[in-house]
Amino acid sequence: MPTLFVMGSAERLVTPDRVRVSVSVQTPVLRTAPEALARAAEARRRLLDHVAASLPGVAVSDGRITTRQEQRSVEEERVGRVETRWEVAGYTGLCLIGVEDDAGRAAEIVAGIGSHPDAQRVSPSFEVSPALERRTRDELER
């Protein structure tokens, strides 16, 4: 009896079915790190409360709050030359929050979060869910 071997490959374009929106919170430059941390915590809480009230059902991943030292250059004139040195200008408080849901809600999520005064940068990215990936792989294997 003859043996038949079949090999092949398949490809299919898939429309992402999930959206993940990253939202950054950043305070202005403040005098001390504890002050920047406290202000970032307040801003984060306001933003999370806004998301809970205006975007029911979304998944939220809450990032940790950190501070970053901000520096500025200071030029000093010396005899025959200018010398530059760096000094601490203050501290900013930072936090990154993730919001995830069905891709069909992307515009609603971006508009809802982007309109909040504590949201500094709103960046959506689209993904294929594990369930859609499995269904598509199964379809292609058949």
Give the tags.
142 residues; alpha+beta; five-stranded antiparallel beta sheet; 3 helices
Q: What are the low-pLDDT stretches, counting only 5+ consecutive residues below 50?
A: none
Question: Overall mean pLDDT score?
Answer: 93
Oligomeric state of this protein: single chain
Topology, number of strands: 5
Q: Helical proportion?
A: 25-40%
Largest sheet: 5 strands, antiparallel
Could you walk me through the main structural features you see in this protein, from its secondary elements to its overall organization?
The chain has 142 residues and is of the alpha+beta class. 30% of the residues lie in helices and 39% in strands. It has three helices and five strands, in the order βαβββαβα. Strands 1, 2, 3, 4 and 5 form a five-stranded antiparallel sheet that branches. The longest helix has 22 residues, at 33-54. It is elongated, with a radius of gyration of 24 Å. It starts with 17 loop residues before the first strand and ends with a helix. The model has no long low-confidence stretch (mean pLDDT 93).
